[in-house]
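Lab meeting tomorrow. Please check the following:
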Amino acid sequence: MRRPKVLFLSTENAARSQMAEAWLRSLAGDRFEVHSAGLNATAIHPLTVEVMSEAGISTKGQWAKDVSEYLGKVHFGNMITVCASAEQNCPTAFLGIGNRYYWKLDDPVKFQGDDAAAIAKFRAVRDQIEQLVRSWIDEQPNE
């Protein structure tokens, strides 16, 4: 049985798309083949790993990937952009995506504040992504 492929796309693939990838993999099991990428990938932010671990969700085996790793190589039935930049600058090679979604999420990496405020921001974004992923799963047809 072929699993639908899902790509979470962000700018740096450092936080939001990584969280979404981990949440979908955890909540949906083997129902989907899940990937994430960034338009200008950097590295996974340490607080991303920390707050996901707090929620009992592993990011093991995940790394920041540039979208060029997928362009012209993988067809995604679903693409979810998680920031305005990725939504506006999505490569035209992805125009043939079966289903495209946009989740406008704050970038916790760009948050300015002390350590306590920064981790609180990461937690808030994590929790928002969890709810979005849960709702998205519920909307998907069982194949």
User: Anything to note?
Assistant: The chain has one domain: 5-139. The beta strands are 5-10, 33-38, 78-81, 99-102.
